[in-house]
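Private note to self, pasted from the team thread so I don't lose it. Backbone tokens:
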């Protein structure tokens, strides 16, 4: 199965030239390190930055330059800094082509739960609800199962919902799957060394398998 870097590398293959992309907290932030150099894309952070570069090396760290997850980052030439109000105007105005974010659960209808576990303290919703409601395309980066081994790809989400029918593609440590019209996870690719039977056992929601499923190329 894939580690976090492997998931980020596979998602980087989904990036297209000219995209404006928002990277969520966690695994999605790693995608910035693996976007091909020949692509001209702009990474956005909802705390007010357009033009995020790769994570800084030790001598490049600027403690005042952070993303929405409080991680230090670099800026690309031509980057812009602005208020969070302007940042959310960009998001809500539909100007983000692709949002990549993590999830605690995804349902077979494309619902996502990624912000709260009942009974646990949270700092707040953050930008997740705005992003899933407004982005043109949404990819989820996640572990296929919980630490206890329970599937996180479900018929229905059990946790509070962040967005309804919004997820298009999932890249997990086991597979690449698309959420299809009418409900279901269509298996697109297998992680290296992972068989279809393992993915079946790890998926609680409706899993759709058509023909031979290729292994990911990273």
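Design output:
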């Amino acid at each position: 199965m894939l580690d976090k870097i492997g998931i980020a590398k596979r998602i980087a293959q989904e990036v297209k030239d000219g995209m404006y992309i928002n990277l969520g907290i966690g695994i999605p932030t790693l995608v910035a390190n693996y976007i091909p150099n020949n692509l001209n894309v702009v990474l956005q952070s909802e705390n007010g930055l357009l033009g995020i570069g790769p994570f800084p090396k030790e001598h490049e760290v600027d403690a005042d330059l952070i993303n929405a997850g409080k991680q230090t980052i670099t800026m690309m030439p031509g980057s812009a800094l602005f208020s969070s109000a302007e940042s959310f105007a960009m998001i809500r105005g539909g100007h983000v082509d692709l949002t990549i974010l993590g999830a605690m659960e995804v349902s077979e209808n494309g619902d996502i739960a990624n912000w709260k576990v009942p009974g646990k303290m949270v700092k707040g919703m953050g930008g997740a609800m705005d992003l899933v409601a407004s982005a043109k395309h949404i990819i989820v980066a996640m572990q296929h199962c919980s630490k206890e081994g329970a599937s996180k790809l479900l018929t229905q989400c059990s946790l509070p919902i962040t967005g309804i029918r919004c997820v298009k593609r999932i890249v997990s440590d086991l597979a690449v799957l698309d959420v299809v019209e009418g409900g279901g996870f269509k298996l697109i690719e297998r992680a290296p060394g992972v068989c279809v039977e393992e993915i079946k056992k790890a998926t609680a929601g409706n899993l759709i398998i058509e023909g031979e499923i290729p292994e990911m190329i990273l």
